[in-house]
Each structure stands twice: as C-alpha cells, then as structure tokens.
Amino acid sequence: MSLSGKTVIITGASRGIGEATARHLAGLGASVVLAARGGDAIRKIADEIEAEGGAALAEPCDVAQWGEVEALISKAQDRFGSVDVLVNNAGVIEPIARLDDSDPADWARVVDINLMGVYHGLRAAIPVMKAQGGGTVINISSGAATGALEGWSHYCATKAAVLSLTRCADKEFRADGIRVVGLSPGTVATEMQVQIKASGLNPVSQLELSDHIPPDWVAKGIAFLCGDGAEQFLGTDFSLKTEEGRRLAGLPQA
C-alpha cells in the first residue's frame, strides 16, 4: 500500500512501537510527525528518515499536557498541510504495584498519559479532520482493556477507558468521515516488557523477551488500519493475536 500524500502523527515515537511505526509508514510514503517527551531521540529518528528520502518532523510533546498536544496538531498541519492519521501510542505501565501498595500520584500520572493523552489527541485532531473531510485515529489498546492482571490496575483501567473512548468517538464522528479504531497488539518486545518482567507479579512477567512479537509487526498492523480494509473494525479493537488479524496485517501466523 502507499501512504503518499498522507500526514501521520505518532505519539510515543522515541522507541518501540512508535519508532517502528514512524519508520514503516515513512517507507510507505507518509509524511510522519514524531512526538515524544524525549526530543533528542525523536530528532535522531526523524533525521534518519529524512536521510533515507522520507519526510519527517520531530516535535517534543508531553501528551498529558493539553496545550502541547494542541500545538503538536497545529504544527503538523502547518508543516505538511493536513492531519490524515493520528496514532495515539504513548503509554506507560510503571510503577507496577498491587492497589494497596500503589501511590496515588503515580496512579494519576498513568491516567494522565494513558487516558488523558488519548483524549487530548482526539480533541485536538478531530476538528482538523472534520474541516478537511475526514481522517483516521488509531488508539493503541491492549488485552488489559478486558482482562484484569495483578499489579496492573492502573494500566487495565486506563486501557479499558481507551476502548470505551474509541467506541464513543466512532459513534460521534464516523458520519464526518473520521475513522476511529483501536489496535490490540498482544505482548510486544519493547522496554515495557523489561519493566513487566522485573515486577514478577503476574503471568506476563514470566514470559521471555523472545515470546513477544517485534514492534515492526505492530507497525504493519497500523499500516493496515490506515487503509480501506479496516472499515469492518471501526469502533472496535483490531487484534493481532487472532489468526484473522495477523493475516490481514500480512504477518506470520502464530
């Protein structure tokens, strides 16, 4: 597929799924906007994409801050002329702790990033997409949205809320040509898995890094959701753990 002429904004783009997605979609012809709190990391990735002939913009952004996300969307539009796809990928899981050991400030921080960050992205991008006649928002979800795990109360709760937000946004804006869909990738070999393994709190922590799918598989799933073939999944979570999901994304079967 080709994404030539499309502008894609990716949050949490300094590493892992976000970095892999920026590189993959740029390779498909998209102009990519990399957003993350780590400005040096995203500038390096953007420079490498441009050195390979792609179009990339690095914008430091804390998704927990509404003003920074609003500015991100505006800068992307100013630079490339449109906002065609927003990938709400930024997310955290630390600190992992049982509820009675959790810190209220830490819990609130996870809510601010994992949930409010997605809301901020939707709130800033939707008016732009409505004005230009449509667009796509892909919210990175998780099996934790529907399955409880020990020590992950903050993560499970925020991912469940993001799934509900995906459903609500689809109902409100599908008629405006705005496609909102979630992507549940399964476990992915990123830095987050190192944190999970160190916790030792639930079955996911017992998995080895080799048990998880690579980030570039998720990038291919995101590319699929950018195309027309994703229509049947709007307002839901598209899962890479299913045979159908992997087939549609062009991935090896489990």
Automatic annotation (TrEMBL):
One GO molecular-function entry: oxidoreductase activity
**Keywords, in A-Z order:** Oxidoreductase
- Tell me where in this chain the Ketoreductase domain is found: 6-171
SMART domains (alphabetical): PKS_KR
Question: Mind naming one GO cellular-component term on file for this protein?
Answer: membrane
Transmembrane segment boundaries:
none
Recorded hits in Pfam families, A to Z, give: adh_short
Presence of the UniProt keyword Glycoprotein in the record: no
Record keyword Oxidoreductase present? yes
- State the family named in the UniProt similarity comment for this chain: Belongs to the short-chain dehydrogenases/reductases (SDR) family.
Query: Would you tell me the protein name for this molecule?
Result: Short-chain dehydrogenase
User: Origin organism of this chain?
Assistant: Pseudooceanicola lipolyticus
Upper lineage ranks? Bacteria, Pseudomonadati, Pseudomonadota, Alphaproteobacteria, Rhodobacterales
